[in-house]
Amino acid sequence: MKYGNPIIPGFHPDPSVCRVGEDYYLVNSSFEYFPGVPVYHSRDLMNWRQIGHCLTRESQLPLRGVKPSDGIYAPTIRYHEGRFYMVTTNMTGGGNFYVWTEYPAGEWSDPIWVAQKGIDPSLLFDNGKVYFTSNGTFWAPVRGAYQCEIDIATGKQLTESKFLWPGTGGSYPEAPHLYHIGGWYYLTLAEGGTAEGHSVTISRSRDPYGPFESCPHNPILTHRSLMNDIQSTGHGDLFEDHHGNWWIVFLGYRYGEFSWHHLGRETYLAPVEWIDGWPVVNRGEKVLCTMEVDRPMTSRPWSALPERDDFEAPKLAFCWNHLRNPDPSHYSLSERSGSLRLLCGKPTLDDLDSPAFLGRRQEHLDCEVSTLIDFTPVSENEEAGLTILADNRHHCELAVTLLGGKKCAVVRRRIGSLSAEVACEELPEGPVELSVHADKTTYRLLAGAPGSLKELATAETRYVSTQVAGGYTGVYFGLYATANGEESTSKAYFDWFDYREKVNG
Predict the structure, then answer these.
(1) Catalytic residues
(2) Which residue, 160, 194, 195, 155, is CA-closest to 174?
């Protein structure tokens, strides 16, 4: 079996997996983006296809006014007696909750809230009981894993929260997962913070409440201090495949340039073997971008997704996200057949609001995105176009606007409190094409009549990296429109959007 890492590239952190027969389902954190918690499906662990989101309604996911990297933290997905359960934390909207469904590609229930505090919750269904485990970073006297039992129908806490294990001494012990494997209860933690010191540690006990003994070769997974293409490995979830082999999914990231990374934390996969009652990840060796393991898993790829979204479907493709809870009046797929319409509303990309924005993750270091936009601004406060967005204080726009009575393309870059227009080019009447060409270090921004583009400016990827912007997300390529705080009825029509990975050689 040969496969490539990351198995899900771009901003897909905190992965969790469950298996039903020969089908595998995976979820990730989504923070301030809506819909929340993407759901992926695979039949071979190598090829994954998004089938929906767990949180598609504002009643499930209130995000109004949330700051970058708030909102939905690490989810866990589990399956029990015909139902899928996804448990997570809304950092700014109520705390820990879970939702459930019998069909993971469909609608999920409204939230069922759990009183135990902490983040990164997990569920274990075991011998008629449901164990709810979360971490104690923010609320408990001792950091580490805490646990109680709950009524899965109501979320009611049935027992007091009990401290389980502090980890091995690494900072920010979080992401506790409890497993019942053989005669042991195994408890994993993420330690070291979600950067270069990240790791996965494990302990075990004969009882779900301990005492827990630490694995003698902890951490079982880390790339700290290693020269490797994959950095900051941690936050893992163990699972068994339908052949009886064990695996771990975990997060990590790839540098764009030197020690900068801008795609966000991605989802990786590594084999696990059990030796003397303890899991050993990838035979104790570092995990690579190209992996080959002697395991009987037949490749079952999905059909390739088209590079172009023509906006002809009645609903948006699953890859698209809004910032926070969207205003439905800002969007339409039916007003003009085969186009996405965005209204120039008051909110801007600088605001902790929900501007007319529709974005998809940058998943490859080398790629190109393009769109055809039909937009006639009537005042100089109106603009619409493409954005490269890390958060509300770190982004770069290639916008169509009005300057001195002329329709122009402008490039604006925002880095923290600094904002500047760095290029301007007069545009022809009618629809124009906007494009961004990306490699590891640079974004090239181009505009002009379709098929006749001119490069207007460049932008460094480092200034939308996590090391500069902070936070837990990654870069989005977005379509947007705004009247920059003014009232407007102007509309921008996007005829199509292309996303293409550039393959060297």
Answers:
(1) 14, 174
(2) 194
Backbone angles phi, psi at 30, to 5 degrees: -135, -15
* pLDDT at residue 140 tops 80: no
Q: How far is CA 336 from CA 20, 450, 491, 494, in A?
A: 42, 20, 11, 10
For the CA atoms of 492, 493, 499, 502, the dihedral, rounded to the nearest 10 degrees, stands at -70
* Lookup result for tokens 């999920």: 108
| Per-residue pLDDT tens over the stretch 14-25 | 999 999 999 999
Do residues 349 and 482 lie in contact, with contact meaning Cβ atoms separated by under 8 Å? yes
Q: How far is CA 298 from the centre of its chain?
A: 27
Q: How many CB atoms lie within 10 A of CB 480?
A: 27
Mean pLDDT, rounded, for 126-153: 92
- At 482, which amino acid appears? T
pLDDT, one tens digit per residue, over 426-461 is 999 999 999 999 999 999 999 999 989 999 999 999
**In sequence order, which residues have a C-beta less than 8 Å from that of residue 36 and are 6 or more positions away?**
30, 53, 54, 55, 56, 60, 61, 63, 71, 72
The span from the CA of 190 to the CA of 79, in Å, is: 22
Using CA atoms, how far apart are residues 61 and 73, in angstroms rounded to an integer? 12
Q: In whole angstroms, what is the distance from residue 259 CA to residue 233 CA?
A: 15
Secondary structure, 3-state, 246-258: EEEEEEEECCCEC
Q: Which amino acid is at 194?
A: T
Backbone torsions φ then ψ of 464, nearest 5 degrees? -115, 20
Q: Which amino acid is at 173?
A: P
Summarised one tens digit per residue, pLDDT across range 388-435 is 999 999 999 999 999 999 999 999 999 999 999 999 999 999 999 999
Query: In the chain, what are the domains?
Result: 2-292 (2.115.10.20), 308-501 (2.60.120.200)
Give the confidence band of 137 by pLDDT, cuts at 50, 70, 90: low
Q: How many CA atoms lie within 13 A of 250 on its CB side?
A: 33
Provide the total of helices (H) and of strands (E) in the chain, helices listed first.
1, 38
Select from 88, 63, 84, 60 the least CA-distant residue to 74.
88
Query: Phi/psi zone of residue 276: left (φ > 0), alpha (ψ -120 to 50 degrees), beta?
Result: left
Tell me the residue ranges of DSSP E strands in 298-366.
308-309, 322-323, 331-332, 340-343, 356-361
Residue whose structure tokens are 């109106």: 382
Which tokens belong to 118?
């902490």
